[in-house]
Design brief:
InterPro entries: DUF2187. Pfam families: DUF2187. This is DUF2187 domain-containing protein. The chain is mainly β and 59 residues long. The protein has one domain. It has 1 helix and 5 strands; from the N terminus they run βββαββ. It has a 5-stranded antiparallel beta sheet with strand order 4-3-2-1-5, with no helix packed on it. Strand 1 (9-12) and strand 2 (16-23) form a beta hairpin. The two termini are 14 Å apart. The model has no long low-confidence stretch (mean pLDDT 96).
């Protein structure tokens, strides 16, 4: 499995997408404001996603 890098767009948990801001040993920190419907979903701006739980959409 390839780990995401800073600036990659990833998809996780039923279609949520975000831009990777920081890569940690076991996870990435993702900015969710990338999604057009971000405000409608009432989510926090950032979240942590384990490397096992995402796929890279745009490198």
């Amino acid at each position: 499995m390839k780990k995401a890098e800073i600036g990659n767009v990833i998809e996780f948990r039923e279609g949520l997408k975000g831009i990777v801001e920081k890569v940690n040993e076991n996870s990435v920190i993702v900015d969710l404001t990338y999604m057009k419907n971000y405000r409608d979903l009432e989510l926090e701006e950032k979240t942590v996603v384990n490397h096992k739980n995402y796929k890279i959409v745009e490198a």
